[in-house]
Amino acid sequence: MTKKWFVLAWAAGLLIALLSACSAGSGDPAAQAVEDYLQALVDKDASALSALSCADWEAGALRELDALQTVATRLEGLQCQSQSTDGVYIFVACEGSILATYNNEDQTLDLSARTYQVIEEGGEYLVCGYR
């Protein structure tokens, strides 16, 4: 009887793993690029931020990072989704906020106020600013 339960539990675990792998591969790569970019921004990871930015936006991304250097930052409720494309850019809208804390006071930066521009270059999705 225990062997039967073991096999059943193993099969269920395998099924869950396969379903998880399938759903992870069907995501929104442009939205994921923006989420990764924003995480690098709040982590203050300049090299990751540069790697996630297109060449035309890299200096702008680093300016944004400089503006956050003296405050503690964290993401709250981040969810991004591709909205449209113009043939060059994929436009990604996000919900959530960046919380910037200075002297125990939080300032909320609403992420829904921007629509991020993402471009695909060589199979990679890169943030190229916002509008």
Describe this structure in a few short sentences.
The chain is of the alpha+beta class. Helices cover 42% and strands 36% of the residues.
Features:
4 helices, disordered N terminus, alpha+beta, 36% strand, Nuclear Transport Factor 2, Chain: A, globular, 131 residues, 42% helix, 5-stranded antiparallel beta sheet
Q: Unreliable segments (pLDDT under 50, ≥5 consecutive)? A: 1-26
Structural shape: globular
Average of per-residue pLDDT values = 85
Computed CA radius of gyration, to the nearest angstrom? 19 Å
State the name of the first-level CATH class.
Answer: Alpha Beta
SSE order, one letter for each helix or strand: HHHHEEEEE
Query: What CATH architecture would you give?
Result: Roll
In terms of quaternary structure, the protein is single chain
Structural class: alpha+beta
Task: Give the terminus-to-terminus CA distance.
Answer: 62 Å
What is the total number of structural domains? 1
Q: How much of the sequence is in beta strands?
A: 35-45%
- Tally of separate helices: 4
